[in-house]
Amino acid sequence: MAKGYDYKVKAWLLLAGTSTEAFTLISQYRDIGQLVSSMLKKIPLSQVCMGMYVHKFCGSWLEHPFWTSKLLIEDSATLAKIRQSSVNELIIDLARGCDVAPHHPAAPIESVALGKDAEVGADNSQAKTPVITSSFKDEVRQAREIFRSGKEAVVSMFADARMGRTLETAGLNELLDEMSASVSRNSHALISVARIKSKDEYTYLHSVAVAALMIGMARQLQLDEEATRQAGLAGLLHDLGKALTPEDILNKPGKLTEDEFAVMREHPVMGYQLLQSWTDVPEAVLDVCLHHHEKFDGTGYPQQQAGAQISLLARIGAICDVYDAITSNRPYKAGWDPAISVSRMVAWKGHFDPELLRIFVRMLGIYPVGSLVKLTSKQLAVVIEQNPESLLKPKVEVFYSITLRQKIATRTLDLSDTRVKEQIVSREDPEQWNFQQLEKIWLPE
């Protein structure tokens, strides 16, 4: 560390003690707040280097490529991501990393644990093989086939549950590996296709969709391969208790009565009890089945768990379960537009883990594929592909003129292209415009 900061760091490390040396050093500052702030230094992007500890990225969190604003730059890949981002300035913590001059790396960043074996951000480079990427259009074809297989698996599982038969869950590993590989090749294709389902398919495809979303989140959090597979399995099995719910309640086209809703609320416990009798179901998966309807503020069910009492996978499951539910066509309502759904979920204070929700939004994009948006030219467009460098500038398909009040010849615009002057000015509700089956615009044949 730069010599000029040695005494400040030493004082900071001694704050918890009562030594004379600590108080002597601290007395050079008017208060502890001044001492803490002295450890923070704003630097331009051009000065960032290995060994620095980033305290904060200046500007919107949407424009930097990480799920957290605090991180140690301990490898070249992390450094490259920061330099390639649209962030202009960042604040570094001199007590936890080096100054502008190079310095020895600080201690590793504390990671979020999933059980005792898997960690967020764990280095699994030796276990990973190179991943081949694919375009959104090409991956959609693979995604459709995966969903067909996934639906068959879930239908079979529901039938086994209703007949009292047990299932060897290890047989699902191939499906989960295919889903994980699809997300790795193109992070948006499988997740986008997951939203397209008829109301008659909802019960079964919902489980496949939640599995895809949970695998996507596991990838965002850099969970290891085993933890990622558990996340996908939890998505496939989280609603299995509904196999024991009366079908007249499960598929009721109208609002449930209080008594019917009480019966519906029993499915997490029934699913948990059912899965306990099945073979090789991991404890983390059982936990998601039981707790995916808990809320971060403790008002959920069945056990009113709150905050960190809810496991990491169950908190992820709660987000993925709700998003797919509100964006899908169901027996009693049409699905909401994906961008509007994200906006409403963010507004539901206390429902979700706010940090995980932020990561979820980054995964989908502020304007997820399929969102209807209004452009500065007073034209409407559908988002057809994300731009990983800027969530606010996706690729869109323009198809409607508000001024002319009619559909126009479609054209594709990449809003991240500096030659394109168009910008998104608002999200739009397809129902208010009486648009139906917008997926025909963005979903390749």
TrEMBL record:
Question: Domain HD-GYP, which positions?
Answer: 181-376
Gene3D superfamilies named in the record: Hypothetical protein af1432
- The record places domain HD at 203-326
Which Pfam families does this chain map to? DUF3391 (PF11871), HD_5 (PF13487)
SUPFAM superfamilies xref list: HD-domain/PDEase-like (SSF109604)
What PANTHER family has UniProt attached to this entry? CYCLIC DI-GMP PHOSPHODIESTERASE PA4108, CYCLIC DI-GMP PHOSPHODIESTERASE PA4108-RELATED
Name used for this protein in its record: Phosphodiesterase
Give the species this sequence originates from. Answer: Halopseudomonas salina
> Lineage of the source organism?
Bacteria, Pseudomonadati, Pseudomonadota, Gammaproteobacteria, Pseudomonadales
